[in-house]
Amino acid sequence: MVDSVDPEKLLDSPSYFVEHYIGEEPFEYQEDFMDKDNDRKAFVSGRRVGKSRTAGWLALWKAATFSGAEVLVTAKAQRQSMEMFNQIVNEIEDSRVSKEQWGIVNKTRTEINFDNGSRIIALPVGRDGSNIRGYGGRNNMIIVDEAAFIDDSIFQQVFSPMMAVGNGDFILLSTPFGKKGFLWERFNDDSWHTVQV
User: Fold this and answer.
1) Do residues 51 and 70 touch, judged by C-beta distance below 8 A?
2) Cβ proximity of 67 and 118 under 8 Å
3) Cα dihedral 6, 119, 154, 134 sign
4) If DSSP states are collapsed to H, E and C, what string results for the chain?
5) What percent of the chain has pLDDT over 70?
6) pLDDT bracket for residue 1 (50, 70, 90)
């Protein structure tokens, strides 16, 4: 059971949500990345430092605390998008609250539906981005794992139009892959909040 929480802080601070609902204390760089008030973020690091877990926490925070939120978890390949989705499922199962308290009304291999109308969906980008067309809009969050390995044309032709609608969050995660491409450009853009570990 969760201790009493401050509802206002819950909406403003994903790390507060993680501490009270997941039962974990994020590292300082995870807390910084989650709590920074910016809707465009990029997290670049080597493997096994918690970037996917951080993004999974953000996905759960968004879906659980905002009604009608749509969280799209994507990557170049199905296997990668499912890795993060499975991380999210594990966080729910290992959390301090029950499945009923999470408000989960339906769960499939690639989607979780919540009783507040929110959902988390895992899909691969695919070769041309056609798998994810049609997602996005108001109150959404798009998480792109291993973003450095996705063709720039997909960011320009698919992601950019998706994020131009509404007031959603756009989160890029990746291991480094050279000083080029969409992720590199955004990582060096002052309007983006970036973390490198």
Assistant:
1) no
2) yes
3) negative
4) CCCCCCHHHHHHCHHHHHHHHHCCCCCHHHHHHHHCCCCEEEEECCCCCCHHHHHHHHHHHHHHHCCCCEEEEEECCHHHHHHHHHHHHHHHHHCCCCHHHHCEEEECCCEEEECCCCEEEEEECCCCCHHHCCCCCCCEEEEECCHHHCCHHHHHHHHHHHHHCCCCEEEEEECCCCCCHHHHHHHCCCCCEEEEC
5) 91
6) very low
Length of the chain equals 197
Rounded-to-integer distance, Cα 95 and Cα 103, Å? 13
Tokens matching residue 4: 């009493």
Residues 6+ apart with CB under 8 A from 45: 51, 175, 195, 196, 197
Residue 167 structure tokens: 């007031």
Query: Does residue 176 or residue 74 have the better pLDDT?
Result: 74
What's the longest Cα–Cα distance across the chain? 47
Segment 8-25, tens digit of pLDDT: 888 889 999 999 999 999
* Mean pLDDT confidence for 144-152: 86
Crossing angle of the two packed helices 51-65 and 28-35, in degrees rounded to 10: 40
Picking from 174, 191, 195, 184, the residue whose alpha carbon sits closest to that of residue 46 is: 174
